[in-house]
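User: Quick sanity check before I run a bigger batch. Here is a single chain. Can you write out its predicted 3D structure?
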Amino acid sequence: MQVMEKIDHRTSDKKLRLTIRISANHLSFAVGDPQQDEHIAYEQYELNNGISIAANLREAFNRSELLQSGFRRTLILIDNPVMLVPTDEFQEQDVETLYKHTLKWRRSDDVVTSVLPDLNAVAVFTINKDLRLVVDDHFEDVRIQPMMQAVWSHLHHRASAGSRRKMFVYYHEKQLEVFSFQQNRFRFSNSYEASSINDMLYFILYAWKEIGMNAESDELHLAGNIPNGTQLNEEAHKFLQRCYLLDQEIDFNNNSFAKRKDIPYDLKALYLS
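Assistant: Done. Predicted structure follows.
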């Protein structure tokens, strides 16, 4: 399958831009516009754990049908630690130094940024230099953003529904992302490593207290592929009156793409928000 040389301007960017989702233990590819026609091509690539992610991606260009389809545009989703800087405090010349002093950084990484216009923030994160070279070798138009960006944007829209304050928890790959918004800004955002219900509950209640949320009137929303999510919701309910485990199908308006169990929540947020 070869992507068209002439671009029909009625064709959405989502159909022309291949998404490459990269984390420490996963590599996958997606393209399509399920909001328009409920169709998406999705491929989970089997990693060779004996070589780097960059080497895996280079090999994937010889094996993956999607990667061999002639796409010129790509969106790279990276699951690396993110530093959020308010737009009005962002100084491009200082951001690399600030990141290196704030979060874990390796000499093999480039510091990159992505603007979150709806949240008046700039996400600062890293991408491996070799990985970036592989991407630049194969695409003319490259966008890079943190994996969480679509999740933040999607749940920010939910935050404005109703008058109650909300804290969101998103779980993926043993990482608990906890965040809250105040109008069009982040009020709080932090990430915790957690694999058990007890660990998750501890960090949720810690963040709840840190933000100053009210156990009776404010809301906790749990999202993502949470193992034993119902149990976590029930345990949180012992301490907080208003806890909600988000149903992905309802969350994304019953789109058939939202029903797929093999596709992570962050990709659903990217394609359906």
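The chain has two domains: 1-147, 151-272.

User: Great, the batch can go ahead then.
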